[in-house]
Amino acid sequence: MRVLMISSDYPPRPRSGIGVHAAALAGALRRLGVSVTVITTGSKPESGRDGDDHYCGTLGAEILSLPGEASATLSMLHRNVGMAAAAGKLPAGFDLVHCHDSRAVLAARAVADLWDLPLVMTKHYDRSAGGTHLDEDTSDRVMLDYEQRLERWGLERSTVVIAVSQSLARGVRTSVGRAVENLVVIPNGTEFHDTARDAPASSLGGPRTRQVELLQVGRLVHQKGCDLSIAALSLLRDLPVRLVVAGDGPARPQLEGLARSLGVRDRVTFLGYVARSRLETLYADAQIALVPSRFDPFPIAVCEAQAVGKVVIGARIGGIPEQIDHLETGILTPPEDHIALAGWIRWVLADPDRARTLGERAGSHARAAYSWDRIAEATLRQYQVARETFAAAGQPRRPVADLDAVAAVDAVRPTDTGGDR
């Protein structure tokens, strides 16, 4: 089978879990004998990039990228035009198009219609639910409205829709407003492993004078709640605890200022962007992983920390409760509550044996649920469903040149460009 995968986010420096997911899935599909070609924005991996070229080099997938200097400044629309143009240069013979999220749907839909192929769309994120991380200006609200309409336009035309969590699947049904045929849930995964399972006991069981490391991984945006982790740390002054933050983003200056104002700047380490070759080591060195998101559909950070056998404290919101069985495979805390977060950190540190048990259960859960090979097998089954369903329909889709251009534009045009929403 030949698959054309289109994603606006992809290594060597993925901006989100979407890029991590797309790359790992492409590699796992290739191991199953599927030919995968990826269309993306950004630049090709460079040799010697702190392990990133190795990560990409294991994919076995062809990567066709737009110039990196262009992708940083082009709008979503321009990126989609570029991705569609890149696809147009490829020889025919693909069996289907797999689109990752709404920001690639214009290109994916155009290519699928042009070549008369089934479209599989993976929904990674609900931007309406997570909209609080947007800047409060008119342009961002217009962009959110545009993306929601664009996504609905793509969902309604997809042969198979994959959601990475049950919460997102419910959102798909609400967005489309009717029953969605061939809607399935296939979660995110991780390639990480608990390399310390046979090593000596965790440092949680060591002397209380040893510094305990809390780890938060993710983009530094309001949605991810890093400010809550910093505020919780400020309530733990009597404990030898520090916070390591792996990731970068527009909120970093404000977060550094918050840590300074709360008197804990010397106990917070901002690492910036961290290559995936180093990330697994960071998880192994930490004792507790924090995921205090304000919204997250199915954060890969939870999968990764659990796979490495760490205690995860996550917010009871979005898809996180699907990943964490409270007090069995991790801890769920109320969203927007740094006091509760600090309390659960104390609870974990008070009983090292209990903490190790939680981590071991989390590791077992992750190995069973988040294997990319299993996820690829489930995805391949849906590819077969898409091909069979598309063939059974019997009516070739009209090529792009025959589409009603006015109707296509109206489908994604915002209804209002001003005022509050």
From TrEMBL:
A Pfam family of this chain: Glyco_transf_4
Gene Ontology biological process terms, A to Z: carbohydrate derivative biosynthetic process
Coiled coil: none
Gene3D superfamilies xrefs: Glycogen Phosphorylase B (3.40.50.2000)
Domain of life: Bacteria
Domain Glycosyl transferase family: residue ranges: 210-362
Name used for this protein in its record: Uncharacterized protein
Organism: Micromonospora haikouensis
